[in-house]
Amino acid sequence: MGLHAYLTLSALVFAIGLFGVLTRRNAIGILLGIELMLNAVNINLVAFSRFTGDLGGLVFSLFTISITVAEVALGLAIVIVIFRVRKTVEADRLDLLRG
Amino acid sequence: MTASPFVLEIGLAALFLIVFFANLATTRADRRHLGWLAFFGVAALTVVSMTLAPTAPALGGAFVLDGLAIFAKRLFLAATAIGILSGLAAPETPFLRRSGEYHLLMLSSLLGMLVLASARDLILLFVAFELMSLPLYALAGFLKRDEASVEAALKFFLVGSVSSAIMVYGLSFVYGAARTTSLTGTAKAFAAGEPLVTLGLLIAFAGFGFKIAAFPFHMWVPDTYEAASTPFVAWLSVAPKAAGFVALFRVYFEGVGERVVYWLPVMAALATITILAGNLMALPQQNVKRLLAYSGIAHIGYLLVGLAAASAAGTAMVLFYLVAYVFGNMGAFLVVEAVTRSEGSEHVSAFRGLAQRSPLLALAMLLFLLSLGGIPFVAGFWAKLYVFWAAAQQGLYWLVLVGAVLTVVALFYYLLIAKRMYIEPPDRPAPVLVAPTLAVSVVLCLIGIVALGVWPKGVVMAALRVAAPLF
């Protein structure tokens, strides 16, 4: 399989993630979508690294993975705080701020 | 002996650890002394940054301390020092009991900005960018029992992490086509017209656009600004934006040579819609913080005008504009903090008759508004004039025209606040009580915009000097 197959796969995963972010109403669902988008990045980086023989991409993907973990940990913390205060994590019901 | 290029980063990391352990060692409930510790540390680092001179690139060219980095770091440190000082008087219990965490988050975000200004490698740039952004989400929801504050944090977090995912997706293409993570290498690949690099940079621009809050990526701004604590917002509205612009210079301009004009139409289009949208949406706002949020979006548009010039002069004028914007916008938010603390309302009517109640505070607000509006002899006037001049040099006359017309619209809503302060009678006669630390921060911002307004030459020359090597 060539590089293009991997790039197509990552584009698909990215698109599915973005679709999830835009259509999900639940904050956890949106977080899952963001995870998919970041995993698409990792597929890209590792595939480029494999086919160009440059190790930078592997290092880059390790950093992306660890930063993703930090991001999701913070996101879940915010979701827990918001559930305690508001008793909901549905994005549609979080509408105090507008205008 | 020349100083290490990492002196500021090492100093800040040491300060972070000191505050961290001091936080562990404190047993009493009132922990505001940690804020003072952080303030004096950052102020000391600001002084150190003034003595720095450019050094050779370190870490195999991934980390540079050139003129641009030093200029940017001075700005970040000064803005953060004022930001910490202004927040010290906040009376809510979380700021007393959790002062350690609050300032640690601010310091780690500042560390991200300092590294970002020096990063000349995609990996370091991405890590620094996230180190700057992640603490901001937590800080936005710092009042975690407050319904609006946590909602703002969630919105900020979701929009922020989606756009950083899009950014790093773009950067992965840049890496793949350039076959290197070094920005020097990617700039060469872009200059050679590699299509995948261009595509990746265009995708990545969405992420940067979010951080600087350019038009289609601005939705988080008004909500976050309205609900988060005002001294934090004053800092959030300037320091991360300035960092975003420095990252834009590094990724999009540095070392690409003639091909830099490729960005001219992209930036010009974005500048136009950002100025239009920011100013027009600011018009109907009755909440002062939302009004300043939309006017801040418009200012990003003016900064993009300088970027659209895609020249050394344009970049330098963006740097000057950033300095003027940091002091003017922070100052305005800090006066809003003083007034809303005393009146308990963020509605513009809270400013009624302020000139009779607290003439000095009203005068300070007037000067900040005039600076933001671009009236002569305060910093904002020169800033606007210079970015327009840089754009006109590139023949972008229509952009200058749009900008100038919309400046008049902006003056209208700025002067509506001035009218409330100076013409309408006050609801009650008592002067507005301002906490001493807040007053000092306002005065520092005031000195900044008046000094820049009377004598802009020093900073303009410095900005021109540091921008020249980029092209």
Write up this protein.
The complex is a heterodimer of chains A (99) and B (471). Chain A is mostly helical. Chain A has helices at residues 3-23, 27-52, 56-86. Chain A has a single domain, classed as Helix Hairpins. Chain A has three helices and no strands. Chain B has a domain at 258-471. Chain B is 75% helix and 0% strand. Chain B has 21 helices and no strands. Chain B has helices at residues 7-25, 32-50, 67-87, 93-97, 99-118, 122-140, 147-178, 183-191, 195-212, 220-227, 230-236, 239-253, 263-282, 288-308, 312-343, 354-357, 359-373, 379-393, 397-422, 436-454, 457-467. Chain B is globular and about 65 Å long. The mean pLDDT of chain B is 90. The interface between A and B is large, with 40 and 43 residues.
pLDDT < 50 stretches of chain A: none
Structural class assignment of chain A: mainly alpha
Averaged pLDDT of chain B: 90
Specify the CATH class of chain A: Mainly Alpha
The number of helices of chain B is: 21
Count all strands of chain A and give the number: 0
Label the overall shape of chain B.
globular
Rounded to the nearest angstrom, the radius of gyration of chain A is: 17 Å
Largest sheet of chain B: none
**Number of helical regions of chain A:** 3
Strand proportion of chain A: under 5%
SSE topology string of chain B:
HHHHHHHHHHHHHHHHHHHHH
Largest interface: chains, residues each: A-B, 40 and 43 residues
The total count of strands of chain B amounts to 0
Question: Any idea what the shape of chain A is?
Answer: elongated
